[in-house]
Write a structure and sequence with these properties.
The protein is built from 16 helices and 14 strands. It is α/β, with parallel strands linked by helices.
Length: 433
């Protein structure tokens, strides 16, 4: 029998008494302020400091175990480097917020929660599908907290002027909308755009949009082989369904940046797409649910609404993608047992709900997402339930891969299938195959 590590033993001691039949470990009671003190626990993340502090303060009033928990907001641009340096020097946090696309890259920085403490079945039945990258062979890399789905923002006035009362439900509707909505000046430059698709550098969320199109078309980006190795899946072999799906998605995405097409809607010379939408110059914008407050702040007078992500008309299933934020216990933290306890307390239904509300991002818990909600919150919750994700080996390197795949196509350097095959080869290199 394999010997348990000291950390696994600590986890089993902490959570052993909670393994009640039919009750999930993280359905912890927060009321009453009972339980022994767990000491100070520092959390690092890039989400709003004030929202976290408010919820932590309220939770600590009901549970004294959370009285020494603090949250520090970090700059998202330097977060990864700051985290690595802090962990190396022994000054890092006990918990940190990890996004699902960093789960594989940062797995070595965390104390994995064994399935004896949180089973795979419990994880899958409690958290959204998009949280699956946090599942490792030996346990759970991080405990999901928030799920931020992609949605379609639409300018009511621009679509109405083109004769549309509703945003598109299917991608193929974009061809007609683009022809009627996009406007060019005398020199042929775009002055009003139907949608920001086709480029990479000035399309906010370009990588995630193309990844969504690939998955909706039935393709994969990475996948496990029969030996359990993570392998590239953009173009596993010539003629495979995956390469056809990826090529179809890439061809559609780049369609709208081709000046020779009637549905030409976007160029590299235009402003960054989120800013262009907020300025009222783009009819349709694909962004995350969490972007809504920022868009409103940028232009309080913008007459916009939010809709579900468009789908492939002939697809059997409705599919979306999203980002998932989870709490990971640092291997170099000073209070590993306390960190795990705090993580489970914060993702319990009583605390995860208020955190979701305060941060304006849907919860990663299925039971909270199923609760009645109003307005955009209801739509965001439903899109979070539909959200999937893929296992990303290195977000920075794969971002460069997606950029090259798009720009090799739009520049005419490679045919669509050749661009996909080159991206697949680069993915293999990133995976060390």
């Amino acid at each position: 029998m394999k010997k348990l590590s000291m950390f696994q033993i600590t986890l089993l001691v902490v959570f052993g008494g909670l393994a009640i039949s039919g009750v999930l470990i993280f359905a912890l009671a927060i009321g009453g302020g009972q339980g022994s003190a767990i000491g100070p626990v520092r959390i690092w993340g890039t989400l709003d400091q004030n929202a976290f502090a408010t919820v932590l303060r309220q939770a600590a009033e009901n549970n004294a175990q959370l009285s020494q928990v603090t949250y520090e907001q970090k700059d998202p641009v330097t977060f990864e480097a700051d985290l690595i340096n802090a962990l190396a020097s022994g000054a890092g946090p006990d918990l940190f917020l990890m996004r699902q696309d960093y789960a594989l890259k940062n797995a070595g920085k965390v104390s994995v929660i064994p399935f004896s403490a949180l089973s795979r079945t419990q994880f899958e039945s409690t958290f959204v599908e998009a949280a699956r990258p946090f599942l490792a062979q030996n346990g759970v890399i991080a405990v999901p907290l928030l799920a931020d789905p992609l949605v379609l923002y639409w300018n009511k006035d621009m679509l109405a002027s083109a004769g549309y009362a509703q945003p598109p439900k299917y991608w193929d509707e974009l061809f007609g909308i683009a022809q009627k909505t996009s406007e060019r000046n005398e020199s042929g430059s775009i002055v009003k755009s139907a949608i920001a698709l086709g480029e990479y550098r000035n399309v906010t969320n370009a990588k995630d949009i193309l990844a969504t199109l690939i998955l909706q078309a039935g393709g994969d980006i990475t996948a496990f082989d029969n030996a359990g190795r993570l392998t590239p899946a953009l173009a596993p072999r010539v003629g495979a369904t995956s390469i056809q799906s990826t090529a179809s998605a890439l061809r559609f995405y780049t369609e709208f940046s081709d000046p020779s097409k009637n549905d030409y809607s976007w160029s590299r010379s235009l402003p960054e797409s989120q800013k262009a939408f907020a300025s009222g110059d783009v009819a349709l914008y694909i962004g995350y649910a969490s972007e809504a407050p920022r868009i409103t702040r940028m232009n309080p007078n913008l007459n916009y609404a939010v809709a579900p992500m468009p789908q492939v008309r002939a697809a059997k299933n409705t599919l979306n993608t999203g980002r998932v934020w989870a709490l990971a216990a640092s291997r170099a933290g000073k209070n590993p047992g306390g960190a795990i306890t705090v993580a489970f307390l914060l993702v319990s239904a009583d605390t995860a709900g208020p955190l979701s509300t305060a941060l304006g991002i849907p919860s990663a818990r299925r039971d909270i997402l199923n609760k009645p909600a109003q307005g955009n919150d209801d739509l965001f919750n439903k899109q979070a339930i539909l959200a999937h994700s893929w296992l990303d080996p290195d977000p920075d390197k794969t971002s460069a891969l997606f950029q090259a795949m798009i720009e090799n196509t739009t520049s005419g350097t490679l045919l669509v299938t050749e661009a996909v095959q080159r991206a697949d080869q680069e993915m293999a290199h990133i995976l060390g195959l």
